[in-house]
Amino acid sequence: METLFEGGRVVDLILVVMIVEAVILCGLAIAWRDRLPLAGLLLNLAAGASLLLALRAVLTDADLAIAGLWLGVALFAHLGDLAQRLKRR
């Protein structure tokens, strides 16, 4: 279990689950035709994935600039998600 965290493999496993989730959501959005706010959901997943990649960078002792870059990507994805939510209201 410790090796999963030291090498950042736990993040890889979670990202695979998130990719499967994104594929399922895209399929549902196509099947349900615009009844699922796909853009917001994908932006939300992108923000979460970016935070996970920042965590992976820290766990693998990567340069802190890499972690900061992923945090910045997470911020922009989160702001995009918020903009989508506010537009629907």
Name some characteristics of this structure.
single chain; 89 residues; mainly alpha; 85% helix; flat
Question: Can you describe this structure in just a few lines?
Answer:
The chain is an all-alpha fold.
Please write out the topology.
Blueprint: H1 2-6, H2 9-32, H3 38-59, H4 64-88
Helix pairs in contact: 2-3, 3-4
Number of helices: 4
Distance from first to last alpha carbon? 44 Å
Mean pLDDT: 91
**Low-pLDDT sequence parts:** none
Radius of gyration: 15 Å
Return the domain count.
1
Shape: flat
Structural class computed from helices and strand pairing: mainly alpha
Helix content: over 70%
Structural commentary:
There is one protein chain. By secondary structure, the protein is mainly alpha-helical. The protein has one domain. Helices cover 85% and strands 0% of the residues. It is built from four helices and no strands. Helix 2 runs antiparallel to helix 3 and helix 3 runs antiparallel to helix 4. It is flat and about 45 Å long.
